[in-house]
Amino acid sequence: MADYTGAPYNFVPITKHIYKRYQTQEDLPRHDIIDTKRYSGELTCRITTLTDLFIGGGKDVKKGEYSSFAQCVDGTPCIPGSSLKGLVRSNMQVLGFGSIAADVENYHIMYRQVGAAKSRVSRYYTENILNVKTIKLGKDSRGNHIQTTVPANVKAGYLKKEGSSYMIYPTEADAAKKEKFGERNYYPVSEQTVFRAKEEAEAHGKKNPFSFFEDLGIQMQHKNDCKSSDFTIEKDDGNRIHVKGPESEMYVPYTADVFYRLKGEPGNYKVVSVLKQEGLKPEGYQAGSVISTGKMQEKKVFYVIPKWKEESAIPVPKADIASFKRDYEKKKNGLHGRLDDSLLKEQCRKFFELPKDGERKPVFYIERGGRLYFGYTPFLRIFYEHPVLHGISKEQMGYMKENGDLKEPVFDYPSAILGYASENGSYKSRVSFADFRLQIPEHTGRKQYINEMQYRVQITQGAPKLSSYWDYLVQDNDEYAMTYNEDEFELRGIKQYWLQEHAQAGGEVKNEEAVSRFMPFKNGVSFQGTVRFQNLSADELGLLIWSLSLEADSNQNIGRAKAFGYGRIELKLEGLRLYDYQKMYGGTTLNMDIFKDQTADQINGFVRAYQEHMKQNYKKPGGKPCDIKKEPGVDVFLKMKCKECMPDKKNIRYMSIDDQEYKNRNTPLPTVDQVLTPTSGKPKRIIESKPKSDGRKGGYQDPEGKENPTMAGLFAGIKLEE
Fold first, then answer.
1. Is the pLDDT assigned to residue 166 strictly greater than 60?
2. Is residue 143 within 8 Å of residue 358, measured between CB atoms?
3. Helices and strands in the chain: count of H runs, count of E runs
4. Which stretch of DSSP H or E encloses residue 135?
5. DSSP code at position 173
6. Using one digit for the tens of pLDDT, what is the confidence trace for 661-705?
7. Closest C-alpha to 182, from 146, 157, 156
8. What count of other Cβ atoms lies within 10 Å of the Cβ of residue 574?
9. Cα angle for residues 182, 185, 189 (degrees, 5° grid)
10. Roughly what angle, to the nearest 10 degrees, separates helices 538-549 and 81-95?
11. Band of the pLDDT at 561, cuts 50, 70, 90?
12. What is the dihedral of CA 67, 73, 76, 79, to 10 degrees?
């Protein structure tokens, strides 16, 4: 599809005004008594699968094996009560105008963006933070210049763990010429230079001046047996030079201690020899390290880093270490690229880990605008200026700041009904969810039925994460895309997957690390269970019922692979029984029949009681009453759950990586209304290179307070891995 922008999910707007059901923790109902002015009892529910469903049992499986469906203690497949509670809590946050702060992981997202030279965030990254320059590394045998791009603001050092802290030690560096190299205190070496020097040494019967990689058993990015004649130099239509040579399929990023020798003038040295560090240091050599980073398209260089200095260590903020660890965990399974060998994959992952106790690893870092960035490549991933929670609506942010810390509960409906835990206290849920057991038809054996209704499937799962600002942030600016660097960015809302008519079949497995193998149940099976509650007010019980079953025309989705249509269910209430306090406490003899069944109209009456409560008590600015179903978040949420409103699957598929639909993207994700109603229009393209209304081009202010010229043309051909 031409110019397609879409995804199998969308976003429900976050309520701008939280409804605080209780004012203080002391106002919350007690658990140790039965309050006869409130409602206690149980709801009986049935879940029927409308597409194939899988919910895992939480057990790890070996590679290549299939995950089993969750089971009760007796082995009966079930939907765990915890899964139902998660679904209800998510629904209740929308329908009950709750705070999302406690459920959002608040951290600084890391990014590297070099290829999209025309984007505002790319210019900020390349020009202001890294200050990328092109430098020459010499000439090849044909007299062509060998050059590379160098981020002039980046320095090399050594990261060391000392107790619970991490420190960066600077190097004993030759001072580079600031006007040419900026802060750079390391030496890039082209692999072409290595192969050419090796050939020349062999031709004259001399020792290879770059023998370190052979002596250490290192596989370079190009094949180790390369010849200079294997390299080709091409110019593209933009007159950019591309150097290409045979690539190694066994390359793993590495670091090693070495001896190296320099040649040239102070401030303009180049490396002419690198040897394995063993024995006494040869005359004219210095001690240091080499580091070769993850594979980079056409930019096959490694870096020589001088020895560390013991003084002037720079402490790394603990928050940045925590964000680095979180970022590593999210991307570690993709760090090894297309390597097949499991040992090489593990080596690759370890390269990007933080050092262990007492270990010292070469790193690159930037001190800029009061911030410290570090990583294992000069083109390092840096933190966005603002953490995720900075993007909740100004109204909700202000409300929560007025009512306590962002991570502390504000006693909204979800916290008051389903409980919370915080540093300053906790409150137990007044609702308990039993496991919903698979219902076996009469005259059918359990084992036989399970075998008939289950099958094996494998799906490659993967989707844009929070770092995809085109999807996760409101894009209402036609001059540049909003990112986490903007002071005024806003999160689009709570992520919800679209309902789909059918589950999609598994496809070809291209990446074993990303594949998910499991055994779902086919559509048409049912699960039954009970939800028990204690001491709920009429409005609280009404919200619980509404959060379970939604509207008459609603379906919901739960479990794994929702993006591929799995997990669409119908949840129906089969009964509501309330404690009959007269039977419990009014008689003189023991009465085992303590429940009073409610009619369908009485059940709906509780939902109406909640909606009426909100109409009277949830006042928006100006005192305007709340028409709850017309509130933006509720309206969008119910549209996404409407079984009659399911979009055409071609409009809610993932964008293709192979077809480069993500490449140079300049269109945000359509809104729910734009997906459901084509006549409402499409998202506007944001052309970031066009001048602003006052004639300026969009760009960030330098963290040091300086303005830098645009370098978009220079970086148009740079492509680095994410």
1. yes
2. no
3. 17, 30
4. strand 132-139
5. P
6. 766 678 899 999 999 987 777 888 887 754 444 444 444 454 554
7. 156
8. 10
9. 105
10. 110
11. very high
12. -70
Give me the residue spans of the domains in the chain: 9-108+388-680, 134-317+353-378
In the DSSP assignment, the letter for residue 495 is E
CA 468 from centroid of its chain's CA atoms: 8
The pLDDT-based confidence of 401 (bands split at 50, 70, 90) is: low
pTM for this predicted structure: 0.83
Provide the CA 507 distance to its chain's centre, in angstroms: 24
DSSP 514-551: TEEEE-PBPTT-EEEEEEEEEEE-HHHHHHHHHHHH--
The Cα 659–Cα 656 span in angstroms is 5
Buried residues in 164-198 as b, exposed as e (16+ CB within 10 A): eebbbbbbebbebeeeebbbbbbbbbbbbbbbbbb
What is d(CA 174, CA 621) in angstroms, rounded to the nearest whole number? 63
**How far lies 397's CA from each of 98, 151, 619, in Å?**
12, 37, 18
* Alpha-carbon gap, residue 258 to 278, rounded angstroms: 8
Residue 221 and residue 195 in contact, taking contact as beta carbons nearer than 8 Å:
no
Residue carrying structure tokens 């963290």: 703
Return the structure tokens found at 126: 């390349």
The tokens of 617 are what? Answer: 């008590």
